[in-house]
Amino acid sequence: MNKNSWQIALAYMSVVIGGGFASGNEVLQFFTGYGIAGVAGSVVSAVLFAFLGMQIARISSIMQAGSHKQVLYIIFGKQAGFVVDLILSFFLYGVGVVMLAGAGSTLAQQFGLDPLVGSVLMTVLVIGTLCLNVKGIINLISAVMPFLLILVLAIMVYSIVTSTGSTEELNQAATEVPVITFLGAEVSHWALSGLLYASFNIAVGFPMLAVIGGLTKSPRAAGRGGVVGGLGLGFLIILLSIGLFANLDKLQGIEIPTLMLAQNIHPWLAVLLSLALVAMIYSTAVGMFFAFSARFAAPETKRFKVLSAIFTVVGLGLSQVGFTKLVGTVYPMLGVVGLVLIIAIAASWIRTRKRSTEELAKEAQSRI
Q: CATH topology for 7-178+187-357?
């Protein structure tokens, strides 16, 4: 693993983890409601994250892509890729809005601030960051990952070890957790929920992962970074799933479950985690608004900066709907787009797995 591989892995994890993941809100809705079986669902997501991360980064590196649009055109063809790009961009904007709401909820739960205060603060930070160059944005996103990783690991391990609830009690508590809905209906099986979780998260991570992969000369190094990032994500999901289930009797009605667990350990740990959550929400928000704005203007141009500011401010207004409601509404719909991506990426892998890098590069150039 070289420096580029590690950068891809960390940036991939940072963009996907974001506010819903690291807060435990997503994991609670997608896995914990199925009881102990939800842990198996998190394993399904882990395997998919590793495979999809490898393929996206590798394809992007082969064609030296400058945006996710180019990768979509390779996977789907130009016309279908254009349609998928439009739909994906719309839902990515929705995820950016969710992140602004998540910042408000985190600071409200920890510090008692009005949710609007946290959302406004995050809006200002996102706009300021989008005025940087692309490499500067990637470096900032990658830098915040190790701190949160260590913190969440410590909190989850401690919470699992000190859990006092019996399996029967915890499974009973799980029946009171509303599971995720998809196309208007509750998802009835943990395996399908695991698939949907990977599908909407890969849709979230796809644009930034495609850009980072395109900055890497070696497809092999890019693929390794995608695999390591995906496995890291999978490990965190599994750990979060176990930790939340083990303490489910204490988490009913809580919007930021990991923050509550940190508070139970020590108030100062909760303060540290709240700051780390804001940092992760920030990294995902930047990634989403960057990808959306890049759809309409070239990054680093004046037009891009103006549009980024406008889109983010509009997102601030939309974020006032509420964090949990937005997670349960936007993410399942984004899952449809992600499912289409998973199928197309798998088909591309089957079609090209025995071909050389040179052959794939020539095909990529002919299809753009």
A: Hydantoin permease (1.10.4160)
